[in-house]
Amino acid sequence: MFIPKSHRIAVFKYLFSEGVLVVKKDTVSSTHPHIEGPTNLEVLMLVKSLQSRGYVRVTFNWQYNYVYLTPEGIEYLRTYLALPAEVVPATHRKVTGRPEGRERDDEKFAGEGRAAFRGGNDREYRGRSGGFGRGGGL
Fold first, then answer.
1. Distance from chain centroid for Cα 30
2. Which of 4, 56, 58, 104 has its CA 20 to 30 A from that of 116?
3. What is the pTM (predicted TM-score) of this model?
4. What are the pLDDT digits (tens) for 6-15?
5. Among residues 5, 67, 82, which one has the least CA distance to residue 42?
6. CB atoms within 10 A of CB 4
7. Helix crossing, 71-80 with 5-18: angle to 10°?
8. What's the pLDDT at 116?
9. Residue 37 phi/psi, 5° resolution?
C-alpha cells in the first residue's frame, strides 16, 4: 500500500514522542483520532510493517491494537526522523518532580474506618428484626 511520506512521518513522530500508540481495527474510518492526516488503515499498515521488522510490540485486545516501541524501534525512528540521542519517548523519560512520599491527613485516616463496613453504627438503617434471609426471618 502506498502511504504518502507526510503521513508516514506524522505517524512516526507521534509514535516516537509518546512511545505507545492505540489503533482501532477499523479500516473504513477516514482519520485516526490522535494523528492528523493519515487514515486509520494507513496507521494499521505502518504498524504492521514496523511489527514485522521487530521495531514495535503489538497487543491486540477487543478490536484495538496497543503498540509499544522496542529499543530497536527507538533507534530506527531516531535515525529515520533525524533526532538527537537526547530525545527519548515519553514512556522512557524519568519523572523528576514527583515527591517521595505524600503527607497523609491524620484526621482522614484516624479511627476505625467506615462503620458501615465494620458492622457497627448501621443498626438504625437495617433494623434488628425482619427479613427472610440469614436467620432473621419469620
1. 23
2. 104
3. 0.65
4. 999 999 999 9
5. 5
6. 11
7. 130
8. 53
9. 115, -70
